[in-house]
Design brief:
Layout lengths: L1 H22 L5 H28 L9 E12 L2 E9 L1 H24 L6 H20 L3 H19 L6 H32 L4 H11 L4 H18 L8 H4 L5 H10 L4 H8 L1 H5 L2 H22 L5 H21 L3 H30 L18 H4 L1 H15 L5 H16 L1 H26 L6 H5 L5 H16 L10 H10 L9 H22 L17 H7 L4 H50 L4 H26 L1
Antiparallel strand pairs: 1-2
Helix pairs in contact: 1-2, 1-4, 2-3, 2-4, 3-4, 3-10, 3-15, 3-21, 4-5, 5-6, 6-8, 8-11, 8-13, 10-15, 11-14, 11-15, 13-14, 13-19, 14-15, 14-18, 14-19, 15-17, 15-18, 15-21, 15-22, 17-19, 17-21, 18-19, 18-23, 19-23
């Protein structure tokens, strides 16, 4: 019974998948949406119960309290034995609450957002399957079961990004996400195989014990394993150079962007590194790479967000940038700071995406006759008066993202940059510049969307979204306001809670210098965004004020030309190689050999056919020649023998 309770967070959304996949076509929209949503709410309720029970257990027992072996021998092959087991400890319990809590709010929001979509039931099947898959990922007790969840969320991501697949661009975006993630996943598989070869096991407890036992003898292997695992995280958590799929993923419905590409799936890489912290700490060379890749990602994506006009694309690059902060923290060994930012980011970025969805919803539903793009911020303006509630929650999310105190983003970002200042100055510098970019693009977005005068009929006719969409926004805004209390400086509640699972933690008092500097950066960046864009796009001349920067503007606008580079080198290279293999190797080579053998057989058969003439005199002549040949052979052989 207890085991059933432990795995019921996964079983509830799976039940939603089963019911809506089989009966969804015969059910009303409300029945489909509320069934899917309430099952995720039930999953959250059970996760909260388990969290509370875990909190009541003695600290020394929390790592093993929720170890569940279902008694099902999952894989047995030679020396490999992988049990089908789950693990509920402080780290996975925290992730379960984020996945089911934020997931439930996004499900409820989707009831209104996806209203009257022809594939409404299918959408909720995919969304429920995603939540179940993410829970498998975070509750797994072995690298192999984690990888099952890892692949399932990748599948759901593909299905949801390309959900509106009748538009070819959406289908291509889904395919791009799938292919880029496969690159990281190949490395992840190799890392898992090398883990088994090195330690003879795949469950976390056995592998981490093997790392501690092996010491220096396994150091080289652990360095290789962690590097391969990190490449996997680079794909899933959209770090350079495998980040290019995430901006295109905005082709999916907005709730998908909020759930998968802001709050949960993209954080899987950070969760994995926190879970495997024992291995990463035993590989300082990998940690150094992780820290610098994270910091560079934060900078590159933050700089790219400065010039985007699609309201969701700005948030997509912002997500990549904030993931860079988390990855940099993991590379510095600051796993608590990484997890703290993961949680607060889930609140405020889900809020921003859903608020952006509210804006798009308002623009679309009152501008069918208008050819303008409802996601282009140049077509907005003045929405503060039209969407008052959406404006307030968007403002809260934006200020949290910029790092304005006392909102959640201020505390979690501060913790990361403080660790960087203490341990890695280049990383600190990169993150500081990224924070400046962040505050500026938040200010720019707020001004372009909500201030000034409406610039199109869509914006003039927009009005507030229904309560089913705004209620989740208010809940997420409340979490964004209060989320910093999870790990206040000098208190460190979350840090002490996570410490049994991610290593020793010691809280520090608020560093007034760093906090003051980053508050100034946040306010200065927001003010700069206001000053530069307050009068922009008010005339028919729609040039971006930043375009005066010339090549620097082009670099940001074209996302550092990385997509163009991949298109030229990888995609065209692949097509060129494919056509070469098809025409030269396949048709000219393999087909040439096969066809050549056919021609040879046909020629030989034609020659032999001439021997079968049907004339008795011809057969007699052949027999005579044969007899003469045999007699000659025996005479020569006899002479040689003598």
């Amino acid at each position: 019974m207890n085991q059933l309770l432990f795995i019921s967070p996964i079983l509830f959304p799976l039940l939603g998948v089963l019911v809506n996949a089989t009966l969804g076509k015969h059910m009303s929209e409300k029945a489909v949406g509320w069934l899917a949503s309430l099952l995720v709410v039930a999953s959250f309720a059970v996760s909260l119960t388990l969290f509370a029970q875990l909190g009541g257990a003695p600290e020394a027992e929390r790592l093993t309290w929720g170890a569940i072996n279902l008694g099902i021998p999952w894989i047995q092959a030679g020396a490999l034995t992988v049990p089908f087991g789950f693990l509920i400890d402080p780290l996975s319990a925290t992730m379960m609450l984020v996945v089911t809590g934020v997931g439930a709010l996004i499900h409820i929001y989707s009831i209104g957002y996806m209203h009257s979509d022809p594939r409404y039931a299918r959408f909720f099947v995919y969304l429920n399957l995603f939540v179940a898959s993410m829970l498998v990922l975070v509750m797994a007790d072995s690298f192999l079961l984690m990888f099952v969840g890892w692949e399932l969320v990748g599948l759901c991501s593909y299905l949801l990004i390309g959900f509106w697949f009748t538009n070819i661009k959406n289908a291509e975006a889904g395919r791009k996400a799938f292919v880029v993630n496969r690159i990281g996943d190949v490395a992840f598989i190799l890392g898992i195989l090398l883990t088994f070869v090195t330690f003879g096991a795949l469950t976390f407890a056995e592998v981490f014990a093997g790392v501690a036992r092996g010491g220096e003898s396994v150091q080289a292997a652990v360095a290789a394993i962690t590097l391969l695992l990190f490449i996997g995280a680079t794909g899933k958590s959209a770090q350079i150079p495998l980040h290019v799929w995430l901006p295109d993923a905005m082709a999916g419905p907005t709730p998908v962007s909020a759930l998968i590409h802001a709050a949960t799936m993209v954080t899987a890489g950070i969760y994995m590194m926190a879970r495997a912290h024992v291995m990463f700490e035993a590989a300082p060379s990998t940690q150094a790479i992780v820290a610098i890749v994270g910091a560079l990602t934060a900078l590159v994506a933050g700089y790219t967000a400065l010039t985007q006009f699609d309201i969701k694309r700005v948030l997509a690059y912002s997500t990549i940038s904030q993931l860079g902060f988390m990855v940099a923290a993991a590379g510095l060994g600051a796993y608590v700071a990484a997890m703290f930012h993961l949680v607060t980011h889930a609140f405020f970025k889900a809020l921003l995406f859903l608020a952006a969805g509210s804006v798009i919803h308002a623009m679309q539903h009152h501008g069918h006759h208008h050819p303008a793009d409802p996601q282009d911020m140049r077509n907005m303006g003045g929405l503060r008066a039209k969407l008052p509630l959406t404006f307030v929650v968007f403002l809260i999310g934006g200020l949290a993202l910029a790092g304005v105190p006392p909102l959640a983003g201020f505390f979690s970002k501060d913790e990361i940059v403080l660790d960087a200042l203490k341990h890695n100055l280049p990383v600190f510098v990169l993150l500081t510049v990224s924070a400046i970019f962040t505050a500026f693009y938040v200010g720019r977005q707020l001004v372009m969307v909500f201030f000034g005068q409406p610039r199109t009929d869509m914006a003039r006719n927009a009005h507030e979204s229904p309560a089913i969409m705004t209620a989740p926004l208010v809940a997420l805004a409340a979490l964004t306001v209060l989320g910093g209390a999870l790990n206040l400086p000098g208190v460190g509640t979350l840090g002490y809670w996570l410490s049994p699972a991610v290593g020793e933690f010691k809280t520090h008092p608020l560093d007034v210098g760093v906090a003051g500097l980053f508050t100034l950066i946040a306010l200065g960046g927001l003010a700069a965004g206001w000053l530069v864009y307050r009068n922009a796009f008010t005339t028919p001349d729609l040039t971006d004020p930043l375009s005066r920067l010339g090549p620097l503007y082009a670099l940001s606008k074209n996302a550092w030309y990385l997509d163009a580079l991949y298109q030229a080198v990888v995609v065209r290279g692949f097509y060129t190689l494919s056509s070469f293999l098809a025409s030269v190797l396949d048709l000219g080579g393999i087909d040439g050999i096969v066809n050549g053998m056919g021609r040879l057989a046909r020629g030989a058969a034609g020659w032999l056919r001439r021997a079968q003439a049907g004339f008795v005199r011809a057969y007699g002549l052949m027999m005579l020649i044969g007899v003469v040949a045999l007699v000659t052979y025996f005479l020569i052989a006899g002479a040689n023998a003598r």
